[in-house]
Design a protein that fits this description.
The structure is a homodimer. Chain A is 39% helix and 18% strand. By secondary structure, chain A is α/β, with parallel strands linked by helices. Chain A has a single domain, classed as P-loop containing nucleotide triphosphate hydrolases (Rossmann fold), CATH 3.40.50. Chains A and B meet through helix 1 and helix 5 of A and helix 1 and helix 5 of B.
Chain lengths: 217, 217
């Protein structure tokens, strides 16, 4: 019982700081999203294809969350955008205070888009508001078509679903119509993109959608 | 600070019950393992191939952990082995008390092998001893070759690594030698199997290894 109370306090404190982060994004006309998925679904690859597509025309900063390493920030570094790595040292999700600290290292006036790549985990990050405009969940075809049912809190809290690795559909046991159906059953409002970071399929649609979300200056 | 203290108490209580579970397994000559991985790495498929291979010759029971559904227990039901589903209702890992409750529904005298399929999560289950003989981590080739470095607590706490979906190697950006190297760098004692649940590659080696772990009666 005491654990539950303390968890609630932790979440209340988190939500308070998330509100501060949201206010910072609003003041600076920044579209911020929180990219979540299982380990290995392709979050960083989608980020790489997105930065390639924007090629400096959209001013982006990236916050990378990882349990132990800065491997993802190293991958992002070559795109010449500000990138801050948060290493959670075993922690299973990012929280709003970690993001608030990271924001102190980014010149918010100079960016239009903030991409937060969360720790690879389909469970715990679902409950943590970071102050983002929305959560975007990535599900790869190699994970099968039942994941929205099994991890439904994440799919319910997300506004967008990216179905990634569609180039592998011929080789895996995943029916994309079933996956879409399961996702929409959990969350009928989901906007769905289908992408491949190998063939670049769907990347243009996805990036054009992002551009439309950026607030005017 | 108080959160850390309480987490320690939770873990101490968990470890106490894990000890009781372990004693139950010892008394009944049961080999019990805890199968962990990201969502969609193929834990349930490996379980299905394993039960097919044993085909009743090894007496198995299964405990399925899932955040929301009993889909996995339904998949296992057709193999005619005792299966208990634990639905964590949002919880991100199984713990020893949950397993202790589940064990009350299994006739321990009648089984030689207990397979516990954990919630799909490469972070949180790493810290929870369920009383199992060992943790077995599944990494699929589609997740890339860097996961042992990024989720190193899980790979350090596991005794066995199953590299699954090796049939997809020609299509994915994963160097299996790098994956092995990264895993062994984190944990030099790891026993490694390479499997495909589509082609059945490696299933015989894996199942023969299991049989050798079962204590004599």
């Amino acid at each position: 019982m005491s654990v539950i109370t303390i968890e609630r306090k932790v979440l209340a404190k988190n939500d308070e700081i998330a509100g501060l982060n949201r206010e910072l994004f609003r003041k600076n006309n920044i579209f911020a999203f929180n990219l979540v998925s299982s380990p290995g679904s392709g979050k960083t690859s989608i980020l790489e294809r997105t930065l390639e597509y924007f090629n400096g025309k959209v001013k982006v900063a990236v916050i990378e969350g990882d349990v132990q390493t800065d491997l993802d920030a190293q991958r992002i570094a070559k795109y010449n955008v500000p990138a801050v790595q948060i290493v959670t040292r075993g922690g299973c999700h990012l929280d709003a205070p970690l993001i608030n600290d990271a924001l102190k290292n980014i010149d918010l006036k100079s960016i239009q888009l903030l991409i937060i790549e969360n720790v690879g985990n389909l469970v715990c990050p679902a409950n943590y508001d970071l102050g983002e405009a929305l959560k975007i969940v990535v599900a790869s075809t190699t994970e099968g078509d039942d994941k929205p049912l099994k991890y439904h809190e994440m799919f319910r809290n997300a506004s967008v679903l990216i179905i990634n690795k569609i180039d592998l559909l011929p080789y895996v046991n995943c029916n994309i119509e079933t996956l879409r159906h399961n996702a929409l059953r959990i969350n009928p409002r989901l906007i769905i993109f289908e992408t491949s970071c190998t063939t670049n399929a769907g990347i243009t649609d996805w990036c054009d959608w992002i551009v439309k979300q950026i607030p005017p200056r």
